[in-house]
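Project standup — Tuesday

K.O.: blocked on the structure for the chain from last sprint. Re-posting the sequence here as requested.
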Amino acid sequence: MDNSEVAAVLYEIADLLELQGTPFKPQAYRRAARNIEQLGTPLSHVVADGKLDDIPGVGEALSKKIQELLSTGELSYLDKLRSEIPEGLVRMLDVPDVGPKTAMLLHKELGISSVEQLKEAALAHRLRDMKGFGEKTEERILQGIKVLESSGGRTLLGEALPIAEAYIEYLKASQAID
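H.V.: unblocked you, prediction finished:
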């Protein structure tokens, strides 16, 4: 697992924590993810050198999570968070212009917990009555849902990158390509 894949997992954890309304931790995970993305050295080398704690934003607890992720390819903490949040609410994050705070607000204020419910509420003009929302926000969300429906949605970097790398390796090994 490379640096960008680990960072993608940390960004997902930050989003899930924010959906839960957890203060401070999401920012800490995002900071660590950004610093890991910007490392000039593979994270596996940093771990082997025992210098994971030297990365700004990576403390003892996060260091253990990263080591678990690198050694097993999985993270029990992430699995736990995923199980605690309705899947539809997480899927709402795939809609452009809907971040964790917006999704959480829509869920709390209007009971929206899926993209379909969000679409119905926007079409019924129920979003514009919420504080901080208006007609333009409603239109942007509807446009974002349209994009999501036509594109099949976003794929997390941590999921897409291994697939892309496998294709690259296949193409490199192919005799048909020079």
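K.O.: great, moving the ticket to review. The mean pLDDT is 89. Residues 3-20 form the longest helix (18 residues).
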